[in-house]
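[Help] Beginner question about ligand-bound structures

Sorry if this is basic. My supervisor gave me a protein sequence and a SMILES string for flavin-adenine dinucleotide and asked me to "get the holo structure". I don't really know what that means in practice or what format the answer should be in. Inputs are pasted below exactly as I got them.
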Amino acid sequence: MVDRELPSRARCVIVGGGVGGTSIAYHLAELGWSDVLLLERSELTSGSTFHSAGLVGQLRGSVSLTRMMMDSVELYRRLAGTEHDPGWVECGGIRLACSPARWEETRRQAGWAKTFGLPLELISAEEARERFPLMETGGVIGASWLPTDGYLDPSRLTYALADGARRGGCRILTHTRVTGIEVRDGAVRGVRTERGDVECEVVVNAGGMFAAEVGRMAGVRVPLVPMAHEYLVTQPFRERDGGHMATLRDPDHLVYFREEGDGLVMGGYERRSAPWALTGGDGLDAIPPDFNGRLLEEDWDRFEEIAVNARVRVPAMEDARVTRLINGPEAFTPDGEFCLGETDVRGLFVAAGFCAHGLAGAGGVGKAMAEWIAGGEPPMDLWRMDIRRFGAHYRSPRHTLARVREVYETYYDIKFPYHERSAGRPLRTSPAYEWHRAHGAAFGEKSGWERVNWYAANEAEGDEALRPRGWAGRHWSPAIGAEHRACREAAALFDETSFAKIEVSGAGAAELLERLCDNHVARDVGRVTYTQMLNRRGGVECDFTVARLAEDRFSIVTGTAFGRHDLAWIARHAGPGVQVEDVTSRWACAGLWGPRARDVLASASTDDLSFGYMTLRDVAVGDVPVRALRVTYVGELGWELYCPMEYGAALWSTLWEAGRPLGLRAGGYRAIDSLRLEKGYRVWGADVTPDETPYEAGLGFCVRLEKDFLGRAALEQSTPARRLCCLVLGDPRAVALGNEPVRAGGRVAGRVTSGGYGYTVERSIAYALLPAEQAERGTPVAVEVFGEWVEGEVVAEPLFDPQGARIRGG
Ligand SMILES: Cc1cc2nc3c(=O)[nH]c(=O)nc-3n(C[C@H](O)[C@H](O)[C@H](O)COP(=O)(O)OP(=O)(O)OC[C@H]3O[C@@H](n4cnc5c(N)ncnc54)[C@H](O)[C@@H]3O)c2cc1C
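Answer (accepted):
No worries, everyone starts somewhere. Holo just means with the ligand present. The predicted complex, written as structure tokens, is below.
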């Protein structure tokens, strides 16, 4: 039955009747949200959903992403066989490896899968052929096999979800176009449609490739680009034995296959991408208003490479007759992952940009989004899919397009750790950027910033023999060790201008921060505090330092990529009388650390530099006015030196000139990472996420249970079942990079959160979350580094200077 009447009010309006919107409606209904209205401008499934190839693969690059895919499969399995059967076929999925590097990647993924609870196995080429008999095994080194992968019918799934939502009270109106979103005082108030207005407190933009257009109705940027994506369907040509053939992906040949009756579906990711419906050269999407239930013209030219490759793997494709080549547009984001979460407009959520894995993800996305909307917080660590990971630079459609193209065209390429994207660079540069270039900086990019990884100029001082084995040694330089050692033995200078900086001010600032922080931060003016902010589950939502600048003014410094996230978290809890401002672009920052750091700074400043650890002072460095914070992320005496941006180049050259006679070396972020690992300093988003409490993350020393703060109740009610542990591997050349399984007590007990080599302690270090019973010092462990189990043990942390004597200095 189709609803006809447009209500004047609903608690929640979902814009878009594709698989995304209907899944959110379905899951909201399951949570008891009955006053939900789903508006679709045309028919259900008439966007990208109806022309999907329907493959469902689960293994992704992070735990939460993979967990979402697993949630999808669980839902599809549950719906199968009911009156709302989505046509789910759990035929299993094969992914081939046709090069030694791909085989290494496959083995690495098999390792991750163990920690994600996925039953992924490694199989031989012959075993792959048994499951997909049409394939030629030439060039295949091996494959992975995931028996719970499969495929389904996208339209049937969407209608099944819509029916489930309706049964839970959701009203679905098709042929009802949303034409505007009403925003007042930063919050959503309702939507305008062709058929009248609807008041509401929550709007979910599930507009697929139209989501950017829908976002613009509220002044919100959703960075995605419609990209033409193709697959073909053959006529029946193969004999069936009654069973199902597995899905097959051959990334080295850019192709995928699945059965379709007695024929095949075959598609892939072309090297030449085709953005669609953009205006001129600026890359802004302008999809025709009547583009529903439609496809694009067949583009055989672009598909040729895929078609040729497909015949190499499945020779029967040579003679198979093609029923049709489907060419349909689909929304892609700049990093190839979903775009989810609450936007800068309160109550306006987005769930779009599904990057050709929307069917695989829809079940899990719908569940996570519904829980997020109903609970007011993401139900698990969704940072890698959170819209706030896209900085202000993605407001530019042209920049977005450059990245989307790169991501699409390299979709099936092996992603080596520390690989850097190149499109749209350089964009954000520090005032010392030209200096870095002149000194042979190898740059990485984060949130649009060019950041120094290491300087080629330091390579000669390093030790090539320390290069880690395998992939960890690919994007590596001996300079990293030289820069690390300079910091421990003399002094090193790091450009940290990209740090995200937030100012919280106003009469209620201290009270707000005390309510949000687990540590006591409203201390004397001039004090600096390391703290976390927790969500209601007690998980670490933010992890940073807070400096009190004045009675009513605080400065927060957080990771380069986390500014928008942390600012949004603080702002959404702030009442009137508190201003929360992003001041990143106002301040340049140089980190100066090492046993000789005080001598370096003293030779450029006449100020008294004896102020203590975790305090700040205003000083002059050369001609530059500087706010000096006595903090460290490397475990040495020194400062973060902040100055207004226009002085940044002068500050850098002053410090450099002052430090040269004292053995100062400029260093990059890779040296910082090695230094911080030795000191056990955590990285938010890897070692500690919204899913771990400070106790689990080993940050209990920050928690002040004697005061009230958000998340405290959850901390009081839980006993940590897991703990972040420091592991040392027996083989110093075997370096873990993250996600590797850790075996303890005879089973896979956890996974590596981050790892690297410590050039001072001369050990391969890995951090891992392990069950409390395996977290004791001395517990033997093994870490699977590229298919090889490397022995190690849990050790006391930090490995370097446990008393912190170096930090306090003389
Ligand atoms: C050729 C091709 C093959 C694919 N193969 C696979 C695959 O094998 N596996 C897989 O997992 N994924 C695949 N995908 C991707 C998958 O189809 C999409 O990720 C998914 O369908 C997106 O769903 P959605 O709900 O976000 O968007 P859509 O299905 O596009 O739904 C958005 C809806 O919003 C509506 N809308 C927009 N603006 C408004 C408005 N103003 N008012 C009201 N309604 C509005 C639109 O009409 C549309 O119906 C493929 C995609 C393509 C193009």
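A couple of things worth pointing out: The chain has a mean pLDDT of 96. The longest strand covers residues 747-758. Feel free to follow up in the thread.
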